[in-house]
Amino acid sequence: MANTYSQCYFHLVFSPKNRDALISKQWKNNLEKYITVCVQNRKHKLLAINAQPDHIHIFIGYYMSDLIPDLVEDIKTSSTKWIKENKFTPFSFAWQKGYGAFTHSKSQVETVINYIMNQDIHHQKKSFREEYLEILRKNDVEFDERYVFEFFD
Description:
Layout: E1 9-14, H1 28-41, E2 45-52, E3 55-61, H2 68-85, E4 100-104, H3 109-117, H4 119-122, H5 128-138
Antiparallel strand pairs: 1-3, 1-4, 2-3
Helix pairs in contact: 1-2
């Protein structure tokens, strides 16, 4: 459409089912590359991605003609199939239902990228559960802890 301009950034967060630590360091880079292609095929711009053993962060420049729920479903469905086909884990792999999607402004892009790329250091001090609940609170998202992923402590 003529004279239509947009600039949106989304930070996506989700976890394997039961928050199992199934994402191994041996294949995490391959998973990140695979998901990068999924994101780019839907015309989004991948800005940062970091898979941890029990969750993943994806930060994108958002293509407005695609819906976030459709993007996340595509990432989860296709990557689950890819993980199973490549037999990366002897355990049953699936992503948990639900996800977090948080918007950021242009001025926050560098900060969010650094945050995502430094997850290894970050998680030496804070669990994924603590991190995720903090993200929800910082974004003023109303939630019921009973329904926020399946955290098993």
